[in-house]
Amino acid sequence: MGNPFQDQLLKAGLVNKKQVNKAKHDNRVDKKENKHKPVATGPSKLQLKQAAEKKRIKELNQLHRAEKLEKEKLAQVKQLIEQNRLKQDQRGDPYNFVDANKIKRIYVSDDIGDQISCGQAAIVKYGQGYEIVPLKIAQQIGQRDKSVILVLHAGKPEY
């Protein structure tokens, strides 16, 4: 026989030949079935690594899209200001306003000063300086970036 433990049980009379043969047969069947079964039942290390990499790439793409949208909005604001700014008059009356807790001053004509006071025009920050734009343009700018608008004397801004 092959197994000394089975031989001892057979000699002692605790098991018979039929039971020993059945045990051998069951062992062969178990080994054969286990040979064809996949060893790992859960996801492999490679699959986990690939899933983590896909997730990281997805997050980076989302971040890039958000940055791109922000740049587009800033470019739109810049274009709106450049195309629609009203003229400032260096020999006109000073118009005082607050920017970052500091009082700033621009010089405007009487007509434009009245438009700013009535809410028909707004003062916006443009680069290091300030520009004056009509109310409609200020509302469009406010939809993209509210922090650019410094002075808008409208009852309820519609942006």
Q: Given the C-alpha coordinates, what overall shape results? A: rod-shaped
How are the strands ordered across the major sheet? Answer: 4-3-5
- Provide the β-strand percentage band: 15-25%
Main pleated sheet: 3 strands, antiparallel
Order of helices and strands: HHHEEHEEHE
- The overall pLDDT, averaged over residues, is 86
Kindly, what is the distance between the CA atoms of the first and last residues, rounded to a whole number of angstroms? Answer: 92 Å
Residues in helix, %: 55-70%
DSSP E strands, number: 5
Unreliable spans? none
Which structural category fits the helices and strands? alpha+beta
Number of helices: 5
Integer count of domains: 2
Radius of gyration: 41 Å
Task: Write up what this structure looks like.
With 159 residues, this protein is α+β, with helices and mostly antiparallel strands. The termini are far apart. The radius of gyration is 41 Å and the shape is rod-shaped. Strand 3 and strand 4 form a beta hairpin. Helix content is 55%, strand content 18%. The chain is built from five helices and five strands. The protein has two domains: 32 residues; 117 residues. The strands form two sheets. It has a three-stranded antiparallel sheet with strand order 4-3-5. The protein has a two-stranded antiparallel sheet with strand order 1-2. The longest helix has 40 residues. The mean pLDDT is 86.
